[in-house]
Structure formats: C-alpha cells, structure tokens
Amino acid sequence: MNKTFLPLAALSTSVFVVGTAEYLVAGMLPQVGADLGISEGTAGQSVTAYALGVVTGGPVVTMLTSRVPRRRLAVGLMLLFAAGSAVCALAPTFGMLLTGRVLASLSHAAFLAVAMVITTGVVPPEKTGTAIATVASGFAVATLLGVPLGSLMGQSAGWRAPFWALTVLALAATAVLAAVLPEQPAPATRVRDELRVVTRKPVLLAITATAVGFSGVTTVFTYLTPLLSRIAHFSPAAVSGLLLTYGAGSVLGNLAAGKLTDKSLSTTVRGVFGGLTGVLALVPFAVLWQPSAVLAVLGLGLLATATIAPLQGLILRHAGAAPTLAVAVNAGAFNLGAAAGSALGGLMVAAGALRWTGLAGALLTAAGLALTYPVLPRGDDGRLPAAGRTAGRLVSRAGDAHPQGHGAAPF
Predict the structure, then answer these.
(1) Where do runs of H (alpha helix) occur along 147-264?
(2) Which of 3, 5, 278, 406 maximizes the CB count within 10 A of its CB?
(3) Residue 379: which pLDDT band, with cuts at 50, 70 and 90?
(4) What value does the mean pLDDT of the chain take?
C-alpha cells in the first residue's frame, strides 16, 4: 500500500468529522429550541458562534501551538474537538451549548492548517494539489452525507445524539491519527515569522480573494432551496435530489481541481473562478427552465469546492516555510466569505430579489478572480512547495519569504 495513503485517509476522515459539525445544528433548530426553551432564531446563533470561533479563534490557537510537533498537535486538536462535541451533547442550557460549539470551533481552522502542512510533507511536490484536495474532500463529503445524516439522526433520536456520534467519531479519528501520522517536528520558524508571512501583501491578497470569491457561492447556495422551489417550481423531493446532486458534484469537482492544481496553479485558479462567475451569472435565467436549472446546480456543485485546492495552494506558494498561520487564516476566510455571502443573499431575498442572487454572486466571484491576478505565479511549473520539508528555510526578510527553488513572489 502506498505509504501516503493511510495518513491522507486519516486526515480526510478527521476533516469529515470536523466539517460535519459546522452546519449540523442548522438541520435541528426546532428540536434544539424546544428542548432548551429558546426560539429557532436564537438556536441558529450556535451556527454563528461556531463560525466566529473558526474565524477568530483558529489563528490564535495556531499561534499558541506553533512550536508543538505536528502529529502531537493534530491529535490534541481532535481531542479538543471531541471535548467540545461532548459539552454540546450534555448541554443543559443554551449558554452551555454555545460554550461547546466555540470550544469545538477552536480546533477547526487550526486542525485544517496542520493537516495541510502534514499533507505537503508526506507527498512529492508534484502531487501536493491532489493531496490537498484529497484531505479537503472530507468537507465535501460532510456536506453531502454528514450533515444530512446527522440531521436525520437528530430528528429521530433527539438533537443530542448526533453530538454524541461526533464525539465518538472524533475519539476514533484521534486514535487513528496517533497511529498512522508520521513524526514531523515543530517548525523551526517562530510566531513572528508566521505573523510576518501572513501580513505580506501577496498572502493578504490571496486571503482576501478567498473571502470575496467564496462569498459569491454562498450568496446563492444558502438560498438554493427556495430558489429551486419558488422560481424553478421543483417539488420538495426533487429539491432534495438536486441538493444531493450538488453535493456529489462538490466531491468530484474538488478532486478534479486538485489534479489540475498539480498541473498549473494559475490556470486552475483562473478556470475555477471564471467558471463560477459564468455559472452564477446564468443562474437567474437557468432557473426559468427546469432542465437548465439542473445543469446550473450541477455546475455550481462542481465548481464551488473546486476553489479549495487552488486557493490553499496559492497560500502555500506565497507563505513559503511558515505556512501554518496563513493556512489557518485562509480557512477562516472561507467561513467569513460564507457568512458575508449568506448575509447579502438574505438582504436580497428580503427585498424580493431571490431570483437575482446569482448576479450578485457572479460579481463577487469576478472580484475574487481579479484579486488573484497580482499574486498568481508567473512561469507556473505546476508544482507547489512542500511546507513540511521547507521548515526552517524562511529567510529573514519578509519580502523574500518564498519557497526555495520555486521563484520569488511577485512582490
């Protein structure tokens, strides 16, 4: 068996567990509200609390643990997630539920960051994009299966049952990670090296492109169900089937983008964002005819998570030997973009412009594409740096912090 298979499979499975938690509550708001004596709107704030924990807490945890050996850190973060899930399952009050959600969220961005760093250390540079997509596919599968199955379990066995399931799965994932991950020492870089890198102009532009570009996806996706039912006139059963189609497309698109990123990072970034812009712009017109609406949903699914591998690859390209904090911040940028896109879509829906959310999304993804142009590699050789093997090679000047042998950053 390929020696990289088990580490990548363990990391992908762990990402699936963590990814399932983020939107799990959204499918159980009536049950949570009834049990804790709160409104559904108040219960929904537990999703917001998790997102804020990812955006703000992830980078802090990453900095505080920057000198911990990578395998030990991955195991510790999964234990933290398990503890947060257990607190949610036991929560007697809404305040305690929020505490558990925030506790679990603190491991989200930090775990994704360390998973990306470990991944780049166990595969050849020419396979980095594929490896990133393999690990990130855990999120796509969580959307496709984890969240729906968790919601179904919550409706039949009570909302606490899915959190107990997450706790057990997280503990199992912890044991597997401890058994199969290779030893990787803590990076020789210091916290100030990580901060210096994450504040460099190319890295900041790439992070901003992630937040802005991905917000275009969630402007539409958050309100895809009412769009398909009210405008395209699909039945509830057909809408459920289309959402599964979207999820399946997300898994395939993510994996395909990983392979394409290995061939050319720049071309993949342009292709994915350009494709998203086109599909989103067509959504308001595609939903007027059911066959074209089906194609639009499939296209959106294929391209939505196809953003993960090339955008994280872009961060790795410019972060050089101190990538952990930058990757964690970029993970938060995906969540920030999701929140911003959902908020914008909500304003449009409230204004009676449900059909036209696709045009707003297209403008955002086009803006994200424009932000990437100054930082896309020139003379792209299709290979990404192996962060796990470049640790300690960060040069002292922030402007020169780039992976050796891959050319200087554009700025």
Answers:
(1) 147-157, 160-180, 191-198, 201-221, 224-226, 236-263
(2) 406
(3) low
(4) 83
